[in-house]
Amino acid sequence: MAFEASPATPAMAIPSGSDGKPPSLGYNSFEPRALWNLILTLGLWAVAALGATPLLSVLYMLIVKGGARLNGELFTELPPAGFEMGGGIGNAIQGTLVTVAIASLISIPIALFAAIYLAELRPLSRISSVARFLAKVLTGFPSILAGVFVYAAVVLLMGSYSALAGGVALAVLMLPTITLTAEGAMHMVPQRMKDAAIGMGCTNTQVVWSVTLPTALPSIVTGIILAVARVAGESAPLLFTALFSNYWLRNITEPTASLSILIYNFSSMPFDNQIELAWAASLVLVMIVLGFNILSRFIGRPQV
Asked: Has domain 92-256+292-300 been given CATH number 1.10.3720.10?
């Protein structure tokens, strides 16, 4: 049986312009698409600069007005009385750290167990749907209402304001943020990893503790840090729960100072020294919150 040779495939024709010459492959900045791309790029940078202007303005103002008081005395001394000079905000820093630590100890375990239930154990149950809805509602919950609730449930029961009550109020605000973030992080764990663990004979508990949680840990930690950064600057809940104190905290059942309440109190005083301390406390608080946000971005960045 004879086969006929097929004709050679003709070379692909190169399109040419109206003048018969092939189009130039070089970059021409005056082409319509290049000009439009340049306009959009400049507009994007302008919008980004406009959005960053308030933050940079606040930082500049705080550094100028509060930076002069940044010294060792600021972090180690107690607040001064009305006509006294000097002093510091050491007890306010201590109180802020203690109340945030109490809030973290309360909210993180509860939020993680709730997220495990919502994401792994009963994700489609009715109680999970209700809990998820309530958590989303609580993310927009006014912080002052959390203070009023804890005032009625804890302060009146204990008979006094305290750092413990302040921590409970902050925990109420942290709980929904950590729960929803942890649940989302667990949903992002590939199902094939869980199926592989089950295929090797792991129980559901072993899958959660050995596969799901370690894989989702960076995103969970990011959510925790963002929740901590949010409550570190809260003042309304602490007005009803921790109140304020001019002394060092010795027991969590005592009233305690905090940076946000100190700023609120000192900024309205007619004494220059207290106003300067309020500016310095504002700078310290912004640096703490900014540091937490930067840390969350560093931990939550994609691993290459």
From this structure: yes
